[in-house]
Design goal:
single chain, alpha+beta, 8 helices, 318 residues
Length: 318
């Protein structure tokens, strides 16, 4: 695969262009727990930390004409929407005496920070899926945007409380994409080096420590309603893989045509079934390398990404 237009607009690719390696390194770690960052393009908000857009609900069609005959006027129908940013932040504190003999204090500090940043990636992934817009620190995740059976929520007909979901997305500026604050030169992520400070422990006693403050400001926008489809009520323990792929194909063809990237987000239980189908050479399931050279299963051109924050213990969606 080659990088397409949307691949070039992912957070990782945008940060790669900067002379500052910090954002790229942070996003590299975040994506280990949040595979949405691999393919989903990111665009600046158009109103500070709010992204305002018109979601097109009815599309216009063209009209042929003949010589000396005119055509009528047409208009699309739109709904105004607003998506907001969440600010994820964490401190990294490292005892100065603990790392002073490491030989490279900066490398040692970064090594200690890696686990913290990966934990931030897990929180970020959880908010993108399950975020609650009624909490001021969060935004509306894609599960809450697709929480009732209907045109954009397909019923896999499972019952009980051992169910899971799959989310299919058409990615792009006119479809589904991530957002980051207007004016940010680091795609919404940054490291603030506080240097050597006197830090208080849980008992209020001080010790010398190196301190970093990591931030990730991000959100998600769904500009076209048919660009986000959920397959709900999947009985992952009992569903036949061929049946599952049939459902995915039906959902995939309901996505809008014209996007340069299509992705599927599901948990490890679903991905194992898909990977085994690729091994068994089911016709529409392939194993290949993604545009960055990593192995990936695809269903036709639908990239299968893993998001373990999607559980296999969901209740039935009605």
């Amino acid at each position: 695969m080659l990088l397409n237009m949307e691949d070039k607009m992912t957070s990782l690719e945008l940060s790669r262009r900067s002379n500052n390696p910090i954002p790229f390194n942070i996003i590299e770690l975040l994506r280990l727990k949040n595979e949405m960052l691999i393919d989903m393009p990111a665009y600046k908000c158009n109103n500070g930390v709010i992204n305002k857009a018109l979601q097109r609900t009815v599309k216009a069609v063209g009209e042929h004409r003949t010589y000396n005959k005119g055509v009528g006027t047409v208009a699309t129908q739109t709904t105004p929407i607003e998506d907001r940013i969440a600010m994820l932040a964490e401190y990294s504190i490292v005892d100065a005496d603990q790392i002073k003999h490491s030989g490279d204090i900066n490398a040692a500090r970064w090594s200690e920070a890696k686990g913290i940043i990966q934990g931030m990636g897990l929180t970020q992934a959880n908010t993108l899926i399950h975020g609650n817009e009624n909490k001021p620190e969060e935004f509306q995740g894609i599960q809450r945007r697709r929480n009732k059976l209907g045109e954009y929520v397909i019923d896999a007909e499972g019952t009980g409380d051992e169910l899971t979901s799959i989310y299919l997305c058409a990615l792009g500026e006119e479809y589904v994409h991530l957002i980051y604050p207007e004016g940010s030169k680091t795609v919404g992520v940054d490291r603030h080096d506080r240097g050597l400070v006197d830090h208080k422990d849980a008992d209020g006693k001080e010790y010398p420590a190196y301190k970093d403050y990591f931030t990730a400001q991000y959100g998600i926008a769904v500009k076209a309603p048919d660009a986000l489809i959920r397959i709900a009520n999947i009985p992952i323990k009992t569903i036949d893989v061929n049946r599952l792929i049939d459902i995915i194909l039906d959902a995939m063809y309901a996505l809008p045509s014209g996007a340069s990237t299509y992705c599927m987000y599901s948990n490890v239980d679903v991905n194992k079934k898909i990977d085994k189908a690729a091994r068994d050479k089911i016709n529409v399931v392939y194993t290949e390398k993604d545009p960055w050279g990593k192995p990936i299963s695809t269903i036709r051109d639908l990239r299968c990404r893993r998001m373990d924050v999607i559980t296999s213990a969901e209740g039935r969606v009605a």
